[in-house]
Amino acid sequence: MEVEDFYTVYELTENADFLEQLGTKEKFWFRDLSSQEKQRTLFKYSRPNTGEHWSEKCAEQLCLLLELPHVKYEIAIHDGRYGVTSPNIVDKNKHLVMGNELLHRDDPDDYPKPVEYLDNKQKVTSHTVTRVLAFLSRSEILPPESRFDLGTLGSAEVFCGYLMLDALISNQDRHHENWAVIGETMNGEAVFRLCPTYDHAASMGRELLDKERIERISTKDKYRSIEHFVQKAQSQLYKFKTDRKPMKTVSAFNYAVQKYPAAKEHWLSKLSSVKNAEIKKVFDRIPPELISDIGREFAYRVVIENRKRLLEDYE
Fold first, then answer.
1. Among the CATH numbers 3.30.200.120, 3.40.50.10160, 1.10.3720.10, 1.10.357.10, which is that of 3-87?
2. pLDDT tens digits, residue range 94-106?
3. CATH topology assigned to domain 89-315
4. The whole model's pTM is what?
5. Which of 102, 141, 150, 180 lies deepest, with the highest CB count within 10 Å?
6. pLDDT tens, 133-185?
């Protein structure tokens, strides 16, 4: 592969105007003073030895293949540490409302009051697939603005696409602050749209050590195989609020689309049209200093196995 085919790794330097630290030193806002737009942009550090930077970028590239509305990410480095940048998706005329706040406002007696997520370690079993889709299906919640043709899909049907992405990459982090609605005032009236999908780094086995990856690729023990590994991926959404455990990612998607056949057809047809070679290129483009060959192969196999599971009864 030619070097120019690798994802660009941007370096944040003195040409960046650092605006705002967010709570900890793990992320901050900045403006790139060398760019014409000088757009307000978020930089988020990857935790050491996790690969969160390449997994987030690869998830973004898979969104492009699936024509799924998403936040744009770039790999970057600051102060010797890798991370990702993403542009501000809400300007001064818009505001972002997280899922937990939306669901609490909708049913304050049954959905817990929002607290700081990092301090909220309890499982929110009220965060059910049915509740989220019912909220989004209301006519006042529009689908995201998108460069892609979403046809007549509503916001709940687009969210089904987010669940398919989660299943495809084994994303286990679709908690109630990892989806949101964007509000703005237009002609004196409030307009609300589903936010493009974001935060997908907890996926594709990005935190595994190469020793485990090698074992899972080469083992003859079916309980240590990649096929078994992907079956364990859990969503942060529940089927019923009385459940003790959240749904598995593929189950969450399959359950969601039972009531949304148009969404099922739309998103599975998109997935069916994506070729294995296109998926492989997503991982081939990771610069070699960011991932080992076995890490690249493992991530690719995770997606291919999940693709097969999702399309099992479709093709």
1. 3.30.200.120
2. 999 999 999 999 9
3. 1.10.1070
4. 0.94
5. 180
6. 999 998 789 999 999 999 999 999 999 999 999 999 999 999 999 999 999 88
